[in-house]
Amino acid sequence: MEDIPADFCQRLFRYFQHKEQDESSTNPVPAHLGSCNTIKPCNIFAFSDVVFLQDVSCYFSVLEEGQPQEKLEFTFKLYDKDGNGLLDSSEVDRIISQMMRAADYLGWDVTELRPVLKDMMCAIDVDASGTVTLEEWLKGGMNNIPLLVLLGLKVNTKKRDGQHIWRLKHFNKPTYCCVCESMLLGIGKQGLCCTCCKYTVHNQCANKNPEPCARTFVKSKQEIGKATHDWIKADCNSTKCQVCFKKIKTLAGKWCVWCQEMRHDDCVIPGVPKCDCGPLKDHILPPWAIYSVSKVTVNEYMSASTEPNRPKTIQSRIYLISPVPDTHPLLVFVNPKSGGNQGQRVLRKFQGLLNPRQVYNLSNVGPAALLQEYASVQDFGVWGRRHALICREDIEANVSGVCPPVAVLPLGTGNDMARCLRWGGGYEGAELTEILKEIEASEVIPLDRWSFQVIPNNPQEVEDPVPYEIINNYFSIGVDASIAHRFHSMREKHPQRFNSRMKNKLMYLEFATSESISASCKKLIDCLEIECCGSPLKLNNRSLEGIAILNIPSIHGGSNLWGESKKPDSPSEGRRSEVITDPEILKTVTQEISDKRFEVVGLEGAIEMGQIYTRMKNAGHRLAQTSQITIRTKKAMPMQIDGEPWMQPPCTVSVTQNKIWGLIYQTLCRILTKTVLKLSKKKCTYAK
């Protein structure tokens, strides 16, 4: 019971209070609706402080293994509150409310979803009696993919070969169902579209033997290297056939998922010619490059105390990857929560452009296990948001001998690494095909990385976990970390308030304003000591509220704290010193992301941060350039690494050159193991 949150217990208590009041009521809910059109949705937020046990029980039950039909029957009985074998208006609306919450959690657009769900439930009521029987519920539910997904009875995020990944979609132009060949009608979400192959159907046609989705691997070793098209029935929208060059009428043609060619049904000749994967062939890992060796069975023993020796059988496939020669397959990691709904949209787009086995949702699975499959691939790249750089430890541990270059797609706020590598400050919805082509024209540059170690003064004291052990972008302590920590805490407490980039920026501005008034990090120099390569760094006569260690020339979403540098009197002045603290020499020192040094900058407060961000001030206070630093704090202080803040009790912080980088930097073939992608100046379309 100690593990159950107090808030959850209070909500359960309020639930039983409301339940007793309901049972004492003299006006029971009528079972007959009269007409399906009389269903009126209840306010799902009427009891915002109450946990409904029906919902909790349903959520728990769908996690267990079982057939969708069994779960549908269980859900029916769960919501049949009066036990009369019929779902009346209030019970139907409770189901709709749950599906609305599930859709919002899954990242669906719910603005027009309630009328669609209402029509969906009305369609299940075949005899239009206003009530839904168990037979109608089972028959209608089994033929309705969105209902199964939103009730949690069917998981469509893990793709099996040939299985479609459906999503509700509104079509801006006339579109036809590929099963019954009639037009998709209605307002709002009109039908289902497969994320991977763009196959479109009515909701009720999804289970009526549609064509399988495009394959993602081959099952026979003899098929390896045989580049055959995967033709999918599609509305080619008067596109010219690439064989006879005549226009293709509605639903009279097919398109290849990999090379994107479109042909008449009669012009599709199996195996002639070979598929070349089209304009994105350099990035695509086609199915004939992935061979399913076999299914293996692994026995694991459960650790539960009640059944300590009960074996648990797990089945999984082993894949061998043999890329097409002279190509560079791209492995994409996406955090769907980044940038509001941007991450979810980008995830879907990549699943349609590449092989779905190249695109991974970081909220479902980490990169470590996935990289094992690519251990034998000698030439591939990794693309993701900030997680792409963080997972480099997983890359090193799981891809022996080869560590691929990494590109960063800027979603959400911040994006400092993407800015300094000229990928821009934020993804604005540009065509991903164009960005993929820009990767081909990019150059590879090395990146310094730094080991980060925290030794608390009192090991017994409870403290927040340190987010990372490697610094890629920056580390800071003081005023900016305090603002970031308050923002992070508020986002964890109220995630619904942080669903857009503009809201996030406004919230950051609010916290920065309050921090400038409160000055919680005033007299920072009295609370810490700094040593650079063993030499004390003098901070006398400086009124600082923050210290930043910079590995790249961008922080706080585009600020350059180091600023522009003067030309040195001599080209080699100060460049060979292990540590530079002389103010005059520091004026001539420029930042580089691969010079095996980092820069130390002081900040006077939140106001100065704003001045630098708006270009009203050139830079902060240059304190040092060094390759090693030790910071000793005397009280609890806010800190952050690469935008991830935490509150740290008194401790000793040590930043040193990463051991792996220091050992393998000198040889050319090893430099590529610590690299990120950078657009060449000629091909770059983003602002610096």
TrEMBL record:
The EC number(s) attached to this protein equal: 2.7.1.107
GO CC terms for this protein?
plasma membrane
A Pfam family that the UniProt record links to this protein: DAGK_acc
Domain of life the protein comes from: Eukaryota
Task: Identify the residues that the record assigns to the EF-hand domain, covering every copy.
Answer: 67-102
In this chain the DAGKc domain maps to: 325-456
Keywords assigned by UniProt? ATP-binding, Calcium, Kinase, Lipid metabolism, Metal-binding, Nucleotide-binding, Repeat, Transferase, Zinc, Zinc-finger
What are the protein's GO molecular function terms? ATP binding; ATP-dependent diacylglycerol kinase activity; calcium ion binding; zinc ion binding
Query: Its annotated pathway?
Result: Lipid metabolism; glycerolipid metabolism
Ranges for domain Phorbol-ester/DAG-type:
163-213, 228-275
GO biological process: one example: phospholipase C-activating G protein-coupled receptor signaling pathway
Read off the SMART domains from this record.
C1, DAGKa, DAGKc, EFh
InterPro entries (alphabetical): ATP-NAD_kinase_N (IPR017438), C1-like_sf (IPR046349), DGK (IPR037607), DGK_typeI_N_sf (IPR038199), Diacylglycerol_kin_accessory (IPR000756), Diacylglycerol_kinase_cat_dom (IPR001206), EF-hand-dom_pair (IPR011992), EF_Hand_1_Ca_BS (IPR018247)
Recorded catalytic activity of this chain's protein: 1,2-di-(9Z-octadecenoyl)-sn-glycerol + ATP = 1,2-di-(9Z-octadecenoyl)-sn-glycero-3-phosphate + ADP + H(+); 1-octadecanoyl-2-(5Z,8Z,11Z,14Z-eicosatetraenoyl)-sn-glycerol + ATP = 1-octadecanoyl-2-(5Z,8Z,11Z,14Z-eicosatetraenoyl)-sn-glycero-3-phosphate + ADP + H(+); 1,2-didecanoyl-sn-glycerol + ATP = 1,2-didecanoyl-sn-glycero-3-phosphate + ADP + H(+); a 1,2-diacyl-sn-glycerol + ATP = a 1,2-diacyl-sn-glycero-3-phosphate + ADP + H(+)
Q: Which PROSITE patterns match?
A: DAGK, EF_HAND_1, EF_HAND_2, ZF_DAG_PE_1, ZF_DAG_PE_2
Q: What class of enzyme is it?
A: transferase
Family according to the record:
Belongs to the eukaryotic diacylglycerol kinase family.
Xref: PANTHER family: DIACYLGLYCEROL KINASE, DIACYLGLYCEROL KINASE ALPHA
Identification of the protein by name:
Diacylglycerol kinase
